[in-house]
Write a structure and sequence with these properties.
about 80 residues; mainly alpha; about 0% strand; DUF4372 domain-containing protein; DUF4372
Length: about 80
């Protein structure tokens, strides 16, 4: 029983998000008026949620929202201002 049961690496989702440059994505979105009518759910939040849905293989918006709310504590490091 010498093996550790605690997770010590980064999940696949975090690795994919870390490859993205948040400031560059927001800059491109602002150049193309993607942030024009945004109140709280900007393009970075949208991209993070959509990548999460693809990786988790969700089929509906309800699945995405319930899963994101259930995993909210684990997803704080992604800098999401609001949950979908």
């Amino acid at each position: 029983m010498g093996k550790s049961t605690h997770f010590s690496g980064q999940p696949l989702y975090s690795q994919v998000i870390n490859l993205l440059d948040r400031s560059k994505i927001l800059q491109i979105s602002q150049q193309h008026d993607g942030e024009r009518y945004v109140k709280s759910f900007n393009c970075w939040s949208h991209l993070v949620v959509m990548l999460y849905a693809v990786i988790m293989r969700f089929d509906s918006l309800r699945e995405i929202s319930t899963s994101m709310l259930a995993e909210a504590r684990k997803l704080v490091h992604l800098r999401l201002v609001t949950m979908p």
